[in-house]
């Protein structure tokens, strides 16, 4: 049976990619699209229900999985509505505060919810292997992360960089919020041993580059992931939607749950 989808934010860059790929996927049905902004032109001609709010579309489309790559506030609205209606939802939005993530987790007790700051299979496989690299190299290696994104990205550091930082910190037995350094300027003194640097570059149309540096005595290791297209994230989200339709409420699912890594 095909998995019906509702794309929230269908007129945005990511939403348009999701719509195009969903239409060409034999295992999916584009069941509805939502776009409240002026970018809605052309969406009414897709041959499926269109609305300016998710609630409007959910009144006519039942049993679909919602995919949402919008903004933290809008995605929280999606999660609340999903919890109220028992609708499954895949969320790929970044920039959530810790309190907002707690609200997502609470909503996941009422409906199947999936959240990942990066839907790339490559990034999530990297998250699975990085802890072993940290442990084998030992405490003599300084840990740094550099991320590069297009000039339209609104949050910094990226959600992926923060997730990578949390992965490194956990492998060292640290809390990232206590060890992260997102800015260096002026006479800062020697680098603390217990620190993880997260540096941000913005420019052009870069989809997403993330490099993890291990600076050791006499050598360094660089591990880089580059996303060449938004399709990387869209395909991951579509795969998550197919998987999520068979899951039950109770926890906020992640790529690790789907990939079992």
Automatic annotation (TrEMBL):
Catalysed reactions, semicolon-separated: (S)-2,3,4,5-tetrahydrodipicolinate + NAD(+) + H2O = (2S,4S)-4-hydroxy-2,3,4,5-tetrahydrodipicolinate + NADH + H(+); (S)-2,3,4,5-tetrahydrodipicolinate + NADP(+) + H2O = (2S,4S)-4-hydroxy-2,3,4,5-tetrahydrodipicolinate + NADPH + H(+)
MF terms in GO: 4-hydroxy-tetrahydrodipicolinate reductase; NAD binding; NADP binding; oxidoreductase activity, acting on CH or CH2 groups, NAD or NADP as acceptor
Species name: Desulfocurvibacter africanus subsp. africanus str. Walvis Bay
Family of this protein: Belongs to the DapB family.
Gene Ontology CC annotation, any one: cytosol
Domain of life: Bacteria
The protein's Enzyme Commission number: 1.17.1.8
Residue ranges constituting the Dihydrodipicolinate reductase N-terminal domain according to the UniProt record: 5-119
Primary role: Catalyzes the conversion of 4-hydroxy-tetrahydrodipicolinate (HTPA) to tetrahydrodipicolinate.
Species lineage: Bacteria, Pseudomonadati, Thermodesulfobacteriota, Desulfovibrionia, Desulfovibrionales
Assigned keywords, A-Z: Amino-acid biosynthesis, Cytoplasm, Diaminopimelate biosynthesis, Lysine biosynthesis, NAD, NADP, Oxidoreductase
Domain Dihydrodipicolinate reductase C-terminal: 122-259
Subcellular localization(s) per the UniProt record: Cytoplasm
Assembly and interaction partners: Homotetramer.
Name of the featured protein: 4-hydroxy-tetrahydrodipicolinate reductase
Family annotation (Pfam families): DapB_C, DapB_N
